[in-house]
Prior knowledge:
Number of helices of chain A: 5
Order of helices and strands of chain A: HEEEHHHH
Oligomer: heterodimer
Mean pLDDT of chain A: 94
Strand order of the largest sheet of chain A: 1-2-3
CATH superfamily of the largest domain in chain B: Type I PLP-dependent aspartate aminotransferase-like (Major domain)
Low-confidence stretches of chain B: none
Radius of gyration of chain A: 16 Å
Shape of chain B: globular
Radius of gyration of chain B: 23 Å
CATH topology of the largest domain in chain B: Aspartate Aminotransferase, domain 2
Number of strands of chain A: 3
Helix content of chain A: 40-55%
Largest interface: A-B, 34 and 31 residues
Number of strands of chain B: 13
Number of helices of chain B: 12
CATH class of the largest domain in chain B: Alpha Beta
Number of domains of chain A: 1
Number of domains of chain B: 2
Shape of chain A: elongated
Strand content of chain A: 15-25%
Structural class of chain B: alpha/beta
Strand order of the largest sheet of chain B: 2-8-7-6-5-3-4
Low-confidence stretches of chain A: none
Mean pLDDT of chain B: 94
Helix content of chain B: 25-40%
CATH architecture of chain A: Alpha-Beta Complex
Structural class of chain A: alpha+beta
Strand content of chain B: 5-15%
Distance between the termini of chain A: 64 Å
Order of helices and strands of chain B: EHHEHEHEHEHEEEHEEHEEHHEHH
Amino acid sequence: MAYSTKVIDHYNNPRNVGSLDAKDETVGTGLVGAPECGDVMKLQIRVNEETGVIEDAKFKTFGCGSAIASSSLATEMLKGKTIEEAEKIKNTELVQELNLPPVKIHCSVLAEDAIKAAIEDFKKKQTAKREKAQEALANA
Amino acid sequence: MALDKTSLDLSRPIYMDNNATTPMDPRVLEAMMPYFTEKFGNAASRNHAYGWEAEEAVEKAREQVAKAIGADAKEIIFTSGATESDNIAIKGAVEMYAEKGNHIITLLTEHKAVLDTCRRLEREGKATVTYLAPKQDGIVDLEQLEAAITDKTIMVAIMMANNEIGVIQPMAQIGEICRKHGVLFFTDAVQAVGKVPVDVNAMKIDVLAISGHKIYGPKGVGALYVRRKNPRVKLAGVIDGGGQERGMRSGTLNVPGIVGLGKALEIAIEELPSEMKRLTYLRNKLKDGIMSQLEECYINGSMESRLPGNLNISYAYVEGEGLLMGLKGLAVSSGSACTSASLEPSHVLKALGVGDELAHSSIRYGLGRFTTEEEVDYAIQITVEAVNRLREMSPLYEMAKAGIDLKTVQWNHH
C-alpha cells in the first residue's frame, strides 16, 4: 500500500510521542482498540483547570502507519483547543488531512474515540474532585 | 554495528521476500530466449520441424523436472502454475475417484489454492473435507492424521514446506500412512522442490505440484507430477480442449516457460547442497543477530524442520504493518493485514495457536540465491532499529514494562 506523504511524515517524525502522569487530576487518558485487532491507541491530554484549554497532548500507538499518523495528528490538533472545541473534532478531519484511503478510515475513527475517551476521563476526574471537595466541606 | 552502506545498492529495497517470488536466474532467461522467437513452434505440430524442435525442448524439460524429484518424465504434466496444479490434483481426484469416496484430509496451514479448492468442493457437495490443525511447531500430528482417515478418504493434501513459516512436513511418514490405507498423497511442494531434497518414491508421494517462479524460473508455468505405477493415478482434467498432457491439461504448451522451468530446476538441483548450506548459515546469522539484540521476539514454526532460507519472527508490542513501514529499505512481508476489509491476521499463524496480537506482529524474511551476507547484516540493523523505535511508541510495551499483564486488560474491541 502506498502511503500519503503526510502519513509518512507523521510516521517518521511523530509529534508528541510520550506519556503524561495518568494519576494527575489535570490529565485525561484514553486507551482504545485491542491488540488482537492490530491497533491500540493511548492518547492523553493535560488541561488547564482554570481555562479549560488543553495545554499538552501525548500519544503512544501500536498499529500501522495510518494509525500512528492519525494519533500523532490528533495530538497536534488538540493542543490549544478548549475541551468543548476538542469534543467537536471528527474523524473525517483526520481522513482529509492525512489523505487516508477507505481501508484506513478505521484508524481515524479510533483516534476520534481516543480523543473522546481522554476527555471523558478528564471530566470524570474533575467530577470526582468536586464531589470530594463538597464532601470535605460538608464534613467540616 | 558499523556497516559499510556504500557497497549496498540502497536505491530500492533489498529483496528478502523469496517465499513470495524469486527473480529469474539469467541462465534461465538465456535458455528460454530462442523459444520466443526463432523456435516458436507448437509442440503439438507433428508434421514439420518447428513443431519437432518445440516438442524436443518440452521433452527435455520434462526430463529435467522429473529428475529433480526422482520421477519418470512420463509422470510430469505442465500447467500454468501451482494454483492450477493444485486445482487439477484435488478436483481431478474428486471427480475420478468419486466411486471410491469423497473425503479429503488437509491442513489448516495449507496455501489458499488448496484450501479454497477444498471449500468450493464442499460447497458444491462434491467432497467432505477434514482440516487438521498442526502442532504448535507447524508440523502435522501423524496420529491425528491416521485417525482422520476413513474408508471414504481418497486423498491427503499436505504441503511439503509452508510458504509463510517454511516448516517442512515429515513427508516419508505421511506417505507411509497414506500408502498403508490406500489413500492418495498429494503435496504442494512449491516451496520445497529445488530447495531441499525431494524424492517421490522414497516419500511415497502420488501427486506433487511445482511452480516455476519460486525457483528462479518464470512466472506462469508450473508442473504436476502424477504417479504412473504403484499406484497408477488418474486425474480428470479441469480444462477441456485439445487433450494435451495425457488429457489432464488441455491447451497449447507454454514452450518458453516450460524450457525455463526445466532449466531452473536443473540449476537448483545442481547447486542444492551448497545453497542449502549457504542459506542456512545466512538465515541463522539473521536470526541470531536479531534475537541477541531484541527481547521478546518469537519464532513462528519449527526451527529444526524448516526451509534453509526462511525466517518468521513475531516482535511483541509492535504491529506488523507499522513495522513494515519502518523496514522500507527491506522487501519483506507481514502476517498482519490491517485493513477494514480484513482485520484477520495470517491463517497459518492462527492455526499454530499464535495469539492474534503476536500474529499481527510477524515478519517473514525469505532469503534466496541472490541474498548476500552484507544484505543480511543490513536487515539485522534496520530491523533492530525499527522495532526499538516502534516499541518506544507502543502503549503495549509501556504497559508491559510497568508490569501490567496485557491479558488482564479490558480492551474495547471495535
